[in-house]
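User: Hi! I'm working on a homework problem where we have to compare a predicted structure to a textbook description. Could you give me the structure for the chain below?
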Amino acid sequence: MSNYPDFSLHGYQVNQQLGYNHQGGRFTYKATNLSTQQPVVIKQFRFVTDGSDWSSYKAIEREIGVLRSLNHPGIPRYLDSFNSGDGVCLVQEYKDAQSLSIPRSFDRDEIKSIAISILEILVYLQERIPPVIHRDIKPENILVDEQLHVYLVDFGLARVGGNDLAMSSMVAGTVGFMPPEQLLDRPLTEASDLYSLGATLICLLTGTKSNNLGSLVNNSFHINFKPLVPKLNFRMIEWLEKMVDPNLDHRFDNAKATLEALKPLYVTRVPEVELSQSSLEFEASQLGEKLSKTITVDNSIPETVLEGSWEVAPHQNDPPHTPDNHAWISFDPRDFSNNSIQCQIWVDTSKLIANQFYKRQVILHANSSLEKHPITIEVKTASLPIEIIKLPYVSLILLLFTSLAGAAIGATAASIAGAAAATLIGVAVGTGLFAVLFATLGVVIGTVVGIGAVVAALTVAVIGVGGWVGAGALAAIGLWLWLGFGCGWALAVFRDDRGEESNLVENLTNRGFSEVFAVWFSLLTAGFGISLGISLVVGLLNPYAISALAGTGLPLAAMTVYPPLKRNRLIAKYRASQEHLIKP
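Assistant: Happy to help. Predicted structure tokens:
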């Protein structure tokens, strides 16, 4: 015959005794609801038991009153209450879970999950109107099942708002888990239950039994737990210390604030990544250049080792790649285990299109509080090495005109007065004409006219158009040598695109042409001008004139069209190769 009480008249059959407190006259049973066949928990307070007192009776009455108004999945639901003749019984939902006082192995992340669940229950209780203070949170009153579902039980000491919240009527609770204000029978606040929960979590993290917690509490009510958790995250330690601070004003204000502070924390001490830069900018000066930048990765958390691995984030325009093999971004080293390391990030622009802007993201995976650390990579590729080189048309036209003018004047003068007179006339006319426009440069411009005049005079003399050939030619050559070399061998002096004075050869080389090209192009331009000037005097159908024009004009035309044709050919070749390059 069973020694369990008979509650069949009330619709319940007791199957098992779960706990008892003979001193308080309280017993807890697992029973079956005879109508629904669902398991329930029955708490009984017996009047006739030795050691029972009025406070225990008031406790179960208070628990019934509190539970009637509560509806939360983390609080076993109130189902029924009845008078058993020898006491008062409270019926609640049965939860297949064990209390935290029973030794079990939880890892630190599971303990954090339990803390979050209890805080969510406390948020519910504290946001009620009026709020509910549990007053007896400890491992024995927290149930956890195999799926880490958490339940808060035993509301026998709970206080509901008003005067009850402001001042407890008696010092009740469990030593070591009661906050100082509860021990000293001072007003309670929403922060009072936080101390008890913090003490409970300390028991779990340190493996301390409930009845031994007092050994960690000093005379000022501080719980000295830090030496027992050497690998606990510093921020988690700070969070716990704030929960169990003896000074009520130094704790979190309520469960909601405590929960928000807990969620982002890592329980176990982990490294922290400190990056010297959050973005890197690369700019290539040459096409196909390989560039590198250095980024420093540090960890300032003692007794931890930072481990990391680099990876390029996927991009729609990049070829498919593995973490350790990307088409144009690489790392040295890619993997590391070090608390301070310099990593090189390499960019190979030979795979990229010229004169484009690329933006990618690389990710540092680490065993830190944040598992991923993104870094932006910006790359500006070099301009296409096929520049548009324009000829100095103004300078060339001026040279052509002066050569033509000098030759025409010289040829005309030679046919009348001889080569010497032609040279003098050409120099005088050129100097006077261009001195007005170019001031001090007029003498040099005049020299060009003089050269044209000398050549024209000699040419006309040779072909028999003018007289005094010998004397005139020698005089012209002497004058040319004296004046030409005195002012410099340059064919002409002009102002280049920057407004600076330079001769035509320098102007061409400054634009990117070779020196050989510049000299020949200048000579052919002057030669063509001289030939054209002579031809205008002796006749365009003169065979000598035709030969001179062809001999200077055709090479000049070829040299004029060569640069743009070469550039267009190179551009077409490069455009064809772009099909195999990576787009921005």
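For your comparison, note the following. Confidence is low (pLDDT under 50) at residues 162-171, 422-446, 465-497. The chain has 14 helices and 21 strands. Good luck with the assignment!
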